[in-house]
Design a protein that fits this description.
- The protein is α/β, with parallel strands linked by helices.
- The chain is 35% helix and 17% strand.
- It has helices at 3-10, 29-40, 66-78, 100-111, 130-143, 214-227, 255-258, 283-296, 302-312, 315-338, 368-379, 411-423; strands at residues 53-54, 124-127, 148-154, 170-175, 177-179, 182-184, 196-201, 229-234, 259-264, 277-280, 351-355, 359-360, 363-364, 381-382, 384-388, 391-397, 427-428.
- Strands 2-10-9-8-7-3-4 form a seven-stranded mixed sheet, with helices on both faces.
- The longest helix is centred in the last third of the chain and has 24 residues, at 315-338.
- It starts with a helix and ends with a strand.
- The relative contact order is 0.16.
């Protein structure tokens, strides 16, 4: 047996077994970025038509405010523990900084003054890997076993249901319903009996942009009570909500009975690379998750925590980010509608989600992958694809990178160029 075959023979089935690296299994973000880097080599200086327009990965391209970096340096300069392990405690009070968990609780109480629960440090735990680490490591290790069933809305963000992460739990895909331009979680599916039930709820939802009102949350909590289910609520986009009635579940009475809530500074504060997030839940659960974080991680770099806490002290920065994205969404919406796409302004988040075309200039698309490959190769517009009920859907990210070297110096000029290209194509859509 050669070396390659030997290694493949021992690869865990959770990674896909002997064919874990076979092509054609869809696009991971890293694969899309690698393809974009290769296609960008054809960009020509001063030629807007040659530019690869990347509307695929919803990763903010704006920078975190420099004042947050100043706070990191201030902590580094003033704390004798600046480069030591922070473990699951984070930054402790001193050197001009508040205790990490007291600061998170204070932020949540101020940001959500109508919350039925007054939070303190016992109700929160910071996460050194933001929300993704929580979904991949901390929560599955505390919650899941072979007697667990995870209900996963489709389309969705599949980190927690990956075979690498779910710790032996069964996963049930629950296709969301789409009516009158609105996506809704499916709570009518068959549920197994005699098992621990969990539902992953990334609301505000990616990729669809759907948000929930307080009444929507109340109905979902009622369903959770009736079925003895726990909700893993991913609120990555709650601070980028464009409609005033979009609510955090933390504002709804009874959330603490059924919810583990995940939030972060990644999106609204343009700090994805900082990887600073937190969990809000009943203190009993927080005690358990602290044991998990203690054996899985030695904590986050102290100055990075200080930068995250500085962001939380300035919610107005998030409000400015939300306003800027609202303007970009308006431009993108007009461009898509003008080219025949059935788009809608999202309730929240960084993307617009549209039905994909079945054909372009008479060329039929065989699959969603075929469709996005055509967009990348022929229109030089990079998007993310989804398949829902055997139909093609496209995600258009408003995290738009200007390309001044190609004559596209602003986000608006990139949207205008995308609109120009789209209008040159005769698209066909399902009725």
């Amino acid at each position: 047996m050669d070396v390659d075959a030997r290694w493949r023979s021992v690869i865990a089935e959770r990674a896909g077994g002997a064919v874990f690296d076979a092509p054609g299994g869809g696009y991971a973000f890293s694969n899309v970025l690698a393809e974009e880097r290769e296609l960008s080599k054809a960009n020509r200086p001063g030629d807007p038509g040659s530019a690869l327009l990347t509307l695929s990965i919803a990763d903010p391209i704006w920078k975190m405010r420099p004042e947050a970096m100043d706070a990191a340096r201030r902590y580094y300069d003033n704390s004798p523990d600046a480069t030591r392990y922070t473990d699951n405690a984070g930054v402790r009070e001193g050197a001009g900084f508040q205790d990490t968990h007291e600061a998170i609780a204070a932020y949540l109480n101020k940001r959500r003054p109508d919350s039925p629960v007054q939070l303190n440090a016992d109700w929160v735990q910071y996460s050194p890997g933001s929300i993704k680490r929580c979904l991949a490591e901390y929560l599955p290790s505390v919650l899941f076993d072979e007697n667990s069933t995870l209900i996963f809305p489709v389309p969705g963000y599949p980190v927690i249901k990956s075979a690498l992460n779910k710790r032996g739990a069964d996963a049930i895909d629950a296709p969301m319903t789409y009516e009158d331009g609105k996506w809704r979680l499916n709570t009518q599916m068959y549920l197994p009996t005699g098992r621990k039930l969990f539902m992953y709820v990334n609301i505000p939802h990616t990729p669809t942009g759907t948000g929930y009102t307080a009444d929507d949350w109340a109905r979902l909590l009622e369903w959770a009570d009736e079925n003895d289910a726990l909700l893993i609520v991913d609120e990555a986009y709650i601070d980028i909500a464009y409609k005033p009635d979009i609510a955090s579940v933390l504002t709804v009475p009874g959330w603490e009975r059924r919810c583990v809530v995940l939030q972060s500074v990644s999106k609204a504060w343009n700090a994805t690379g900082l990887r600073f997030g937190w969990i809000a839940a009943h203190p009993t659960f927080i005690k358990a998750v602290r044991k998990a974080t203690d054996v899985k991680d030695s904590g986050m770099f102290g100055p990075s925590i200080a930068a995250g806490l500085e962001c939380l002290s300035r919610p107005d920065w998030a409000d400015e980010t939300r306003g800027a994205y609202a303007e970009l969404h308006e431009r993108l919406y007009e461009a898509l509608v003008g080219a025949g796409f059935k788009s809608a302004m999202p309730d929240a988040g960084l993307c617009q989600f549209t039905p994909g075309p079945t054909a372009a200039n008479g060329r039929q698309f065989e699959s969603a992958i075929d469709c996005v490959q055509w967009f990348r190769q022929e229109l030089r517009i990079s998007l993310m694809h989804y398949t829902v009920d055997e139909r093609i859907w496209l995600r258009w990210a408003a995290t738009i990178r200007p390309l001044p070297e190609c004559g596209l110096p602003t986000e608006a000029s990139v949207v205008e160029e995308a609109a120009r290209r789209l209008r040159t194509v005769e698209f066909a859509f399902e009725a």
